[in-house]
Design goal:
By secondary structure, this protein is α+β, with helices and mostly antiparallel strands. It has a domain of 92 residues. The chain is built from 8 helices and 24 strands. A hairpin with a 4-residue loop joins β8 and β9. The termini are far apart.
Amino acid sequence: MNREDAETYLRLLAEAELRDPLSVRAPASAGAPSVTVPIKVTRVAWALTAVGALSRETAEDVLADVGLALAVRHRPEPAGPPTVRRRIRRRTTAAPLTRGTGSASAGTPDRHVPVGRTLPFHDSMVSGQLDLISFSHTARGARFTVSWRIRNLLGPSPAEWPFFQFIARDDRGHRYRPDFQMVGHPEAVCYLSLDPEPPRDMRWLDVTAPGEAAVGITLEREGAGIPDGAEAQVTETGLSSAEHLLNQIGHRLLAIAPQDLAAGPVSNIATGLGETVAALEAAEALSPLSPVPGRLAALCAGLSVSGHRITAPPARDLPEPWFSLLAHYLRRKPDTVPAHDGFATMTAVLPELDGIRLVLLGVHNGDGRSWLHAQAAGRLLDEQYGPFGLDASFPFSVWIGDSGGRWHAAPPAYWFPDSGSHLAIGGRQPGGAGERALTLRLVPPLARSTPWIKVLVCGRSAEVQARLPLRWASQP
């Protein structure tokens, strides 16, 4: 890694961008100038920092210099004698790592159980149903992953949700208060936690919903690993950190392309790709012989994305998931099988990858979209959302292959600390205990007739692949 050349490239790029009037945003007004660092400079700085070719402090210094130069350029003429201003170096520290225990308590493994039961409920004005997809019991407590549908006679949002009327009792007669932690809209997901925490060996649970008889939930089928005797395949990739970063950018491009045929958001994400590749090569973080830049160039060509400025010739050999999604995008035809509402049970604990263990907790379809529910535990960074639509706190590219041979990108849509505290609707909360609930969106959606999926999780050091059966629950 050549950190001196990395900084030199970034500063030269900043100077070139400052000389280009098209790359610098004009001031909003004479009295309150708008200072915006050119997007290519911020993206290259972020990429160099992400792969360790540049310290965060150095990157902040360069960006501060650019901001200062822009402020001076757009500063209005002073009324009196000029004043000398000293630039203050802004120091930042890397977000701390948070580590999970990997078990609920000393000597007690985590527990993940597929459930697949639907609980209808109703009161005088509101009715609906809860789909209990899976049950998990870890160091953060016991909870169900749930999707919900609700109908309100007075309008779209009930004045008071009837969830507080639910009652749960276990096989020993202990009573629990279900705590509904609402996660997001439009996927309508929540986590139903049990308070107080139940015993580890709880075998079943009776849940009584408003207006309904008790429903027995069996909790004796534990997902201790990959189900049905299948084995997860772990393959070392030998990727550099720069190649892994570029692969994540390719995953992100494919995740949004089918949703916007005009390619506007895709073009925005591709801005600065060529400069990023050149910077990584200048820092000796990326080999000039690496095939990844050529694959990105081929991907941009297939998506009709211009302005990426990658100089490598487009490659002919795209990874199978890339080729599958690119072909789906180029067909520009709606799916022949619609993603009907429903949910499928499946639990699988994947082998640890790059210090993080993923647990898959089921799939559900709603509003024409598909969602994969999971839990991540281990060396989790606090949220570090950066350019190219990437979040460094989730260092994986997740792909789902269906039984028909088509691949789906699965970028993270929402993830939250997996705790007993209430979660706000539609937001993202910082982590802090090394274990978080995670919702990934499948692009394109998954057909409800899919009997099994192949999960491919790509990290820097290795990739994990496993074939998992889906058990779709019948709708009442």
